[in-house]
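2024-03-11 09:14:02 DEBUG pipeline.ingest accepted 1 chain
2024-03-11 09:14:02 DEBUG pipeline.ingest length=158
2024-03-11 09:14:03 DEBUG pipeline.predict start
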Amino acid sequence: MLTPPAQYSAWMELALAEARASLATGDVPVGAVVVASDGAVLGRGRNRREQLQDPTAHAEVVALREAAAARGDWHLEDTALVVTLEPCVMCAGALLSARVPTVVFGAWDEKAGAAGSVYDLLRDRRLPLHAEVYGGVREAECAALLTGFFEQRRGFAS
């Protein structure tokens, strides 16, 4: 795993803010931002599956849609996506399709992650597109948000 540049920690704070906002709709607290090479935030997203009753409304997909709309172009070749949880297979596929070259995530997803834990889709050399992956950025904060959500949902709140 690569050592992440310092600015990824600051951008993760924006993703964490999105994740916290998803709690209001009962969605799993995952947030994402798409950042251009000049540091401008092009898209923000949070899980909205429950809110929209849309199985594709993952934080990464929502952020990619917003970034593409802001650009007027779905090619996001000079961007980074920063997300609080390791992308799943669907989101990893969307990131590759959008040609996002850099993916930064916080918490690992040992059940469904597709950026190095269960699968490594983003770096699979059998595919025509790849991404640099930086995992574990502010991992403890990202994981704690998820753990707290699921403990509360299951009635194990402390």
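2024-03-11 09:14:41 DEBUG pipeline.report The chain has a mean pLDDT of 94.
2024-03-11 09:14:41 DEBUG pipeline.predict end
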